[in-house]
Write a structure and sequence with these properties.
The complex is a heterodimer.
Chain A: E1 2-11, E2 14-24, E3 29-33, H1 40-47, E4 55-60, E5 63-64, H2 70-73, E6 77-80, H3 92-98, H4 101-104, H5 110-122, H6 138-151, E7 156-160, H7 168-183, E8 188-192, H8 196-202, E9 205-210, E10 213-218, H9 220-223, H10 226-233, E11 239-242, E12 245-248, H11 259-276
Parallel strand pairs in A: 3-8, 3-9, 6-7, 7-8
Antiparallel strand pairs in A: 1-2, 1-4, 4-5, 9-10, 11-12
Chain B: H1 2-14, H2 22-43, H3 50-82, H4 94-109, H5 111-116, H6 119-142, H7 149-173, H8 176-186, H9 195-212, H10 216-223, H11 226-231, H12 236-258, H13 264-276, H14 284-305, H15 313-334
Helix pairs in contact in B: 2-3, 2-14, 3-9, 3-10, 3-12, 3-13, 3-14, 4-6, 4-7, 4-12, 6-12, 9-12, 13-14
The chains are: A alpha/beta, B mainly alpha.
Amino acid sequence: MIELSGVTKRYGPNTVVNSVSLTIPGGGVNALVGPNGAGKSTLLSMIGRLLPLDEGEIRVDGLDVSRTAGNVLAKKLSILRQENQVAVRLTVKELVEFGRFPHSQGRLTAEDSRHVEEAIEFLELTELSGRPINRLSGGQRQRAFIAMVLCQDTDYVLLDEPLNNLDMRHASQTMGVIRRLATELNKTIVIVLHDVNFASYHADRVVAMKDGAIVADGAPGEIITGPSLTEIYDLEVPVHSYADRPVAAYFAIGSRPVPNRNANHRPPTKAVLATDH
Amino acid sequence: MLVDRRRLAQVANVRGMPEFGRPALVLLLLGILLAMVTALFMTYDLKGSLAFALELRGRKVGGMLLVGFAVAYSSVLLHTITNNRILTPSLMGFDALFVLIQTSAAFLFGTLAFLSLDVRLRFGIEVGIMLAFAAILYRLLFGGENRDLFLLVLAGIITGTVFTSLTALIMRVLDPNEFLTLQDLLFANFSTVNRDLLLVSAAAVVVIFVVTRPLLPQLDAVAIGREHAINLGVNHRVLVRQCLAAIAVLVSVSTALVGPVAFLGLLVSNMAYQLTGTFRHRYTPAAAGMIGAIALIGGQFLLQELFASVVRLSVIISFIGGIYFILLLLKEAGR
């Protein structure tokens, strides 16, 4: 169980995360959604102790993340950030092997090698295992990093926008793998998602953030509705239903005439027409 | 051939044997080369009293070994904790500060008082000040979110220049006799190494090696990036502090022995990465250290025997290293 109470993060005068309290019981895919700058990534980084908190407390299975020793937490929780660049040259297998670091401190045992093999197989990277990661495509690289985190074999996996920059095929494949981590391997996934539709189809619970606070929390069917999306994103989104799940058709909005905006723009158009006559 | 070797390595891995790959081979070859160079330096053209000559040369070789390893190791450590391969302690003004400390001490208390001080005590004080500087540098390097590489290089060069200018200023106003004594003490000089200082330095380097040895696997994780390292359970902040402290001591050792040797660290560490083809700290510090020692001992030998010591070794190293530094910067900027 992940418990957050009164978690606050400030950068100078800006409060990025404002006294957030949240409880995530074990299991399932928990999606964090919300507009850019809502504080989702910051919150996730704080749970993964990549950022210190200014106020509040975060406990993972009762362990306070800001006080517990790093290597104890590393066996309990893993985090994968958005920007995954590695400063040195590594092959896929070497990267995945790093996932065993908390368990073996760099000296791989037979048990570690088994985990590495399994993780590589689970993410269908067997054929790429000898390739340097800087020579992989975006989707392959993302899978390699997920394999590393999987290999770390933690109960809790935190993922920050893992579908970023992936095309349809790679995005859906990656999301499928993440779903399987929860369903087949019983892991608790906390994932920041940009696209609410992925949350709709793959998440068990959706937590929506806006301006550093949680504004909605519930099953995908409760959160992905016209009114609540309007509140979260300040945008009227038509929500349809496909395969029994809500789908937000936000990609069509740009080309549709929006009544309010037209009303504002009409007077000058009229004036131009008038001079023509 | 290549496939065979890979298969061999796999077999070795399965049996739990240490993999005898390229890095290990490079270490072995460097070890042999270092032994050969050292033997040549020690025995070439021996004349007069054997015991005296060997003691004298042994002291030089000891000094160069220490300096080679200290400079190389400190550079590798700084590269790892900053995740780039261009910064060296010397570029960040570490050794310039050491010279400044010595010069200011000579100015304030006089070279006589300074030199009559017990060498261990003197060295201890100098290392203490260096450690304080490392603490300030830690704030600069890792305090904020902004870690722009070129800004850091620039900041480092400027601090280094400030230290050097302050040193020059103090030297101008120094008594000429004091100045001469001080210069003897300061400038890269591989041919005269103080025996007491050599012992103290050797002890310091050995302590640093022993203390940092258990950290090496964690440094591998740090090398792949700060956030990955934290995720993998490394206490990044503490580890970085420990490394900076180790760097401060190592730079103190090398600068106290022979004065600043600009670019040596940059040259040998990058050569080590290229030769071993790995970033693993099981190999890189040892490889860089041996390359450093080979360059110093071999270079000194060539200068003494072939060029009759008309040019200083440190000048040649700075020249080659400087060109290499510019090439590296261009390569980084081109990315």
